[in-house]
Amino acid sequence: MPQDPVRLLPPAEAAELPAADADGQRVLDRVAEGSNVVVLGAPGTGKTSLALRLLAEAVAGGRDAVLLAPTRARADWLRGRAAHLLREGHGDGVVRVRTPAALALTILTTSLTMRPGPLPPPVLLAGAEEDSALASMVSTVTWPGLPAEATGSRAFRSELRNLLARAGELGVSADDLADLGRRLNVPIWGPASQLLSTWDAQGRASAERRAQTRKMDTARLQDRAVEALSSWGSDAVTVRRPVPDLVLVDDYQDCTAATARLLTALATPDPDGHRAQIVVLGDPDVAVETFRGGTPSLLIAAEDHSGLAATRLRLTTCYRGNPAIAAVVADQSARVPVTGTTAHRQTTLAPQSSARSSAGPSSGASDAERPQAAAGVEVILAASAWQEHAHVARALRLEHVHHGTAWSQMAVIVRSAADAETLARDLRRRGVPLASRTPAVLLRAEPAAAALLDIVRAAIRDQLGGHGEPPQRDAAINLLTSPLVGLTTMDLRRLRRRLRQNPPAAAPHASAPEPSEPRTTVPTTGPAPVPAVDPTADPAARTRTRTGGDAALLALLADPEQASGFARSLDGQPLSAQADRLLIAARILEALRSAIGQTPAEAPRDVEALLWAAWNASERAEAWRTTALLPSASSVRTLLSEAAEHDLDVVTTLFKRAEVWAERHPGQDASSFLAELDAEVLPSDSVAPQGRRPEGVAVMTPAGCAGQEWELVVVVGLERDRWPDLRLRDSLTRTGLLVDAVTGRLTTDTAAPGEGSGGSGAVAAARAQVRADERRMLIMALSRASRRLLLTATADAEHAPSPFLTEIAHNAGISLTDADGAPLLTPDTGDLTLRGLVGELRHAAICGNLETATDAERRRGRAAVDLLADLARQGVPGADPATWIGATGPTSTAPLITAGERIRVSPSDVEGLAACPLKWFLTRSGGSTPASDAQALGSLVHAVAERAESEHLRGPALREAFEERLSDLGYPATWQGGLAADRARAMIERLDAYLADCDALGVRADVEQPVRADVDIPLSVLSPAVRQRAGLRTPTKGGDAVPVTISGRIDRLEHLGGLSGDDPEDSAGPDRNGTVRVIDLKTGQRVPKDVQRHPQLATYRLALSSQGLDVVGGALVLLGKEPSKRSGDGYVLAPPGAALDPSPAALEPAQETAEDPGDKEANGAADSSEEYWAEELVAAAAVAGVGPQIEARTGEHCRTCRVKDSCPVQVEGRRVVS
Fold first, then answer.
1. 3-state DSSP of 977-994
2. Which DSSP category does 955 fall into?
């Protein structure tokens, strides 16, 4: 397909601000009088448009004005609009839209640096620095009821940082926190208050503590700015206070108490009488940042309680939506707890002809011009989550194709960011173009920019080698794995292996293995393997080993000519692409060494020149541009295209930032620029209007859609326990409780949830607040629609519509259930794309040809075949049956194991291959599912069992070790979660009973014992069927045995005799002179059929026997199965007594009677295979996994199989019928 030509798009036309109505004019007049004003308005009344108009008129009138937004994302969106409005004659380069923290940083920086004895500018602590500072402080405080392992963890410090941050924002002092802890019965706040007193001292000016003066967290930044403003004169700051003439705050309901204190300080006159005029706008019913300390009551407090003495004005006309949408929003708003007043909820819907939009240009066609343009409120109940996404994609495409609605005039809103990512991927796959998102981030946190900065930093520090010296390993590896080069750790392992096998002539031979590539050689018989590097050896030796493994790689990076020769030698081979990237890395290092070498010794190094040298040598510009412009047959921009475009944007921003810095700091060294970016915590602001981006549907959370509107809004995921999610927003440090108590959301005379006698009342109160927060987020989402509002949910065995959806449907007159109470599901749908149509036709054609098809399905199948034939003649991909999977034959007939190689299997492979080779193959090739709760429990129990044996934990000590890890399973504090925890505890009790019996019998065990053995299974002992398959598939030519390598790890290898285990020399491996048995711990409760011949146990026994061990048995310890009372044991052992069937089997006397020679010849093979059943089992499994033909088998495993749709013996897997 030819590539579309690249076209440069002009900047998007700026949307005109709507004219102020009567309410808006009253606000403009009052602001012109110089009064502080608080503006209340319901969604759609024009608060954001009014704020932008106030900003534009103030700047036009020569006033110094700034517009504040509570979050970085909202500030970025508002800044883009403001840049367009102010560019004509008022683009003076001043950032007019900021966050409160950014304004506070400017104030504090001016105060510290512009005084007679200048102090260093402030530096905001990054997460790692905060964690390091807290780590040294936490250990000095006693934490009652918490073990040292918990308080010393990073997770605990993270929660503690959150508590200290919220306390700072809320203005809670150390004494206040301790007092609240006593009143609310939260013991942890007592010791936390000791840290808070020290933490609160951050950033305070002090000539004696110059190093500490400049470091603080963002939570204290605004309060430090308030202190700086109050002491401006006494500090003898040489410039005026950087206080704007007008400060506008949009969405004030999401600001914190710290912002309120900063506004009060700005509104306080200085000695010259200058102060800031404050105008705040908001709606307490759509507060979406309460969990981060956002306080809706600030809108009420601004009138008379915060020092602003603001005049309250209301906006009473709604310019967004239609009567149906307005009724739903009003109904939900009425259910939100009242914050001060409800007067702002009383609005009048403007006539449709006068409705205005402040979100941007519309789709260009009026509703009258669109055929049957849908409007109002609709609900979709889908039969599954997959179908819910399919319905959303179809609705969006129908709206665009049938009604001409621009993609940019549609949005999908979900509750959480994780849901947004998942849904965005699915919509993109279904043919829905998505809006490009370029959130403001720190340059040093962006991989593309960080790669350039890191390699330039290494060049400045002389870490790139040269003159025969290789570059430093860390700098080289960081470059190789960065986006500039793009090698993975697996690529590096393969390159190292190739260089060790065939080292370049000039490169030193590096034969030492990498840490991830242990060099072990295991014989068929003999002692257990010994690691190539002793883990207790000298650390310096390990360093030398690791460095040696990279020596050849670093030598290539030091010499581009040698790297080029290495790349040419691999041309056309599997590692060719990786070698080319290695050459690019060598050229980057050479370019930087050259740029550094051309700079005179005393001259400052030019940061722009260094960045350009690395970027130009990387050749990423053209590669990323090509990827970003890749055409797509489904008109969907792929994830790779978006990532490439984003990386190009980041690099462009970095170069622009370096250019501006060089102009402002002439003659300074590049290291100063790097230090400035390292110290930056808040992303740098931009005043440039953004260019036009391709249109797409916005997918976001309620917090990200404030101030915006779309013609069609789809709210997804309105299911019970999902939206609303009524789980309490709290943690170990009870940060959520602190926010609720200080902001008045929870009475401070009520005990904390779960604490004391009043806990139940507090839980109810806390859940009520959570429900209110969830409803506010929903109102924010609902109120973004101007014409059509679509709500979706899944209704199946695990999901049900949420109460919110039920309320909305009742208000809109929509029925969700039938007369019997069953949900009214929307019929399943497919993708409204050409690819989706082909898929539906193929499905109908296949179903219509199955033996179970009805007459209607057969007619539909014949029609689908005719349509597919027509599409195939038109060249539509996927329509021609000749291109379907299964119709063209296999893509390869080569076996999975090449000639001469041993067949490597694990005991679990033998079990899987014995059940179904196809399921085993597909599962190993990507068909596996994420780890389940049962698998997580099994891993935890195995870890505890290993620790129990190594540390000899029994009884209470074992149970305590398990309780320490129980939280890792994430069981909820519910009745069902309690049952799951009790079941897990019962498994530990059974494990303890088994270990006690082992101790009583003097059994010593090696836990997690690795086993690796080469076993040659003679063909003569196998059945004719297996022997024939082995002859056809075994890669060893002319051999009379099946060469198998058994590799695995035994849960417990128990020693029943011989050594006592007292000799440490022999404790590292299995006992070669005594007898052993194999024990496998299972957390399930099902006893396998024919357990005396269990595949895993039999395979372990065969491997150990081949190494000379006397294996007397093996068993499964079923920790998940409750033992019978008659047994008297506290556990279940299967088979009883660990009695596996012998192999070779002992012949019964009746079998030894004389036989007819003819019968003996006919039955010899069958008798041999029965006698050597274990060898038969392992050989059959090994041969079945060789390929190229993989067999599908039916059985009990089919009931829970996850790959049925790829299995030819299942109806679901019949992709092609004749």
1. HHHHHHHHHHHHHHHHHH
2. T
Distance CA(49)–CA(318), nearest Å, equals 13
Flag whether pLDDT at 1078 surpasses 90: yes
CA torsion, ordered 159, 160, 163, 169, to nearest 10 deg: -110
Tokens 């409705």 locate to 355
CB contact at 8 A, 246 and 276: yes
Tokens coding 719: 């299911």
**pLDDT per residue as tens digits for the range 387-438:** 999 999 999 998 998 888 999 899 999 998 888 888 888 888 788 888 865 5
Helix 933-950 to helix 956-966 angle (10° resolution) is 140
Cβ pair 777, 791 in contact under 8 A: no
The tokens for 695 are 């249109």
What is d(CA 230, CA 395) in angstroms, rounded to the nearest whole number?
Answer: 57
Quick one: how many helices (H) and strands (E) in the chain? 40, 21
The first and second tokens of residue 273, run together, are 């009488």
- For 115, the token pair is 């005084």
Q: What is the DSSP string of 1042-1109?
A: EEEEEEEEEEEEEE-SS--S--GGGTTS--SSSEEEEEEEE---PPPTTGGG-HHHHHHHHHHHHTT-
* Token reading at 1150: 């009746």
Hey, how many other C-beta atoms are within 10 angstroms of the C-beta on 639?
12
More confident residue, 503 or 429: 429
Nearest alpha carbon to residue 735 among 291, 104, 260, 132:
291
Q: Which residues on neighbouring strands pair with residue 1013, listed in sequence order?
A: 1046
What gap in Å lies between CA 158 and CA 140, rounded to an integer?
A: 17
Token couple for 155 = 């997770």
Closest by CA to 348, choosing from 376, 367, 320, is 320
Sign of CA dihedral 548, 553, 557, 561: positive
pLDDT in tens, 142-185: 887 777 777 777 778 778 877 887 787 777 888 888 888 888 88
Strands (E), 826-970: 903-905
Q: Please work out, in degrees rounded to the nearest 5, the angle formed at the alpha carbon of residue 257 by the alpha carbons of 193 and 243.
A: 120
pLDDT tens profile 968-981: 888 877 787 888 89
Strands 710-715 and 698-700: unpaired
Q: How far is 349 from 359, CA to CA, in rounded Å?
A: 18
Alpha carbon 764 to chain centroid, angstroms: 32
- The winner for highest mean pLDDT among 736-750, 1019-1033, 1203-1217 is 1019-1033
Judged by DSSP in three states, 1013 sits in strand
Query: What's the CA gap between 528 and 978, in Å, rounded?
Result: 43
Residue 564: DSSP 8-state: H
For 860-994, list the strands marked E by DSSP: 903-905
Cβ neighbors of 1176 (< 8 A, separation 6 or more) are: 1021, 1022, 1023, 1026, 1169
Residue 958: partners with Cβ closer than 8 Å, 6 or more residues away: 944, 948, 988, 991, 992, 995
Position 1034 scores a pLDDT of: 57
pLDDT tens track for 870-892: 999 988 888 888 887 666 667 77
Q: What angle, 0 to 180 degrees and rounded to 10, lies between the N-to-C axes of helices 489-501 and 576-597?
A: 90
pLDDT of 90 > 50? The answer is no
Q: By the 8 A CB rule, do 1018 and 1110 touch?
A: no
What integer pLDDT is reported at residue 378 of this predicted model? 94
Best CA proximity match to 669, nearest among 769, 602, 616: 602
User: Which range has the worst mean pLDDT, 175-179, 302-306, 685-689, 793-797?
Assistant: 685-689
Alpha-carbon span 38 to 252, nearest angstrom: 9
Provide the 10 A C-beta neighbour count for residue 397: 21
pLDDT in tens, 1029-1063: 877 655 555 568 889 999 999 999 999 864 434 44
Report d(CA 345, CA 1185) in Å as an integer: 69
Q: Which residues are registered as beta bridge partners of 1118?
A: 1082
Structural tokens at position 944: 């505890």
